Amino acid sequence: MKAFRIRLPSRLSAASIVTLDETLTEAEASGSSVWVFEGAEPGVFCLGMDLASVATESKARETVQAFGHCMGRLMNAPCPTIALIEGQALGGGLGLAAACDLTVATSESTVGLPEALFGILPAMIMPALLTRMSPQRTRLLALTGATQKAAWAEQAGLFDRVVEEARFEQASRRAQKDLSRVAPVTVGRLRKLIHDQSVLPVGAGLEAAMEVAAEMVADPEVHENVTRFLEEGVAPWSA
After folding, report:
1. What is the model's pTM?
2. Do residues 207 and 120 both lie within one domain?
3. Minimum mean pLDDT among 20-34, 50-64, 147-161, 169-183: which range?
4. What is the residue-wise DSSP string for 77-101?
5. How confident is the model at residue 149 (pLDDT cuts 50, 70, 90)?
6. SS3 183
7. CA distance 109 to 85
C-alpha cells in the first residue's frame, strides 16, 4: 500500500490554495494507491476559506476559481481518496472532505457551512456536497450556518465512518487498506460510470454501462489480473 498524505492548512488562503494545487500535482505523479487528506493542526481538518483572501473583488475571483480547480482535480483523482477528520470541517474544508471517496471522523468532529452568514454561497463545493447529502439537508446546513456534530454528519451522509478518538488511528489504517486494493484501471471508469448513470435517461444509461463493461472485459490488464488469480491464486492487490 502506497499512500500519498496531504496535510491541509487550517484556512484556505490564496497562497495555501496554490500550494494545495501543487501538492495535487505531486500526488498525481506519485503513482500512489490512495490519497489521504488530513488536517495540519490539532482539532482542525480545515476551516474553509480565509476571508482575507476574498476581501477584494479581483483577488476573490482568482482565489475562488483556483479553489474550484482543486475541487475538480480531487473529484477526478486517479486513485481512491480518503479524508481523515479530527475536529472541525467547515465551508471549503467540508467540501474537500465531501469530495473524497471515504470520510473517517472522530466522534468529536463537527461540520458546518457558515458562508451564507456573510452573504456567500458554498458554490464551489456544492457538487461534492450533493453527492453525499439530499438537497434539503444541504440547503438547511447552508441556511442555518449551524455547526453540527459527527453523529448528524454520519446520518446525513457526510461522514462514512465515525469512531472514538482512541480508535481513530486503527480506523485510518483500515480505511487505507480497504481502498488501496482496487485496481487502478477501474478508478476513472467507476467515477465516469456513476456520473453517467446519474444524469442519463435509463435507456441511455444502460447503453453506456454496456459499453463500459465491454471495454473492461476486453482490457489486457483485466485479463492478466483474472488469469493470474485463476491460475496462480495471486490477487492483484497482493502482487
Report:
1. 0.90
2. no
3. 50-64
4. -SS-EEEEE-SEEETHHHHHHHHSS
5. very high
6. coil
7. 7
Q: Which of 41-50, 187-196, 198-207 has the lowest mean pLDDT?
A: 198-207
Based on the fold, state whether residues 35 and 90 are members of the same structural domain.
yes
Q: Which domain holds residue 190?
A: 184-238
Inter-axis angle of helices 184-199 and 202-217, nearest 10:
170
Cell, residue 131: 453527492
- Report the b/e string of 30-54 with b at 16+ CB within 10 A: eebbbbbbbbebeebbbbbbbeebb
142, 159, 180 - which closes a domain: 180
Same domain assignment for residues 20 and 121? yes
Evaluate whether 122 touches 74 at the Cβ level (below 8 Å).
Answer: no
From CA 8, how far away is CA 28, in angstroms rounded?
17
Distance CA 143, CA 134 (A): 14
Instruction: Collapse the DSSP code of 171 into the 3-class scheme (helix H, G, I; strand E, B; otherwise coil) and give the result.
Output: helix
Say whether pLDDT at 86 is over 90: yes
Look at residue 48 in the predicted model and tell me its pLDDT.
94
- Chain CA centroid to CA 9, Å: 16
Residue 238 is predicted with a pLDDT of 67
**Distance between CA atoms of 84 and 75, rounded to whole angstroms?**
16
CATH of the domain at 38: 3.90.226.10
Using a 10 angstrom Cβ sphere, with 0-12 exposed, 13-18 middle and 19 or more buried, the burial of residue 65 is exposed
Domain count, the chain: 2
Last residue of a domain, which of 150, 180, 210? Answer: 180
Q: Are residues 191 and 73 in the same domain?
A: no
Cα four-point dihedral sign 108, 4, 185, 17: positive
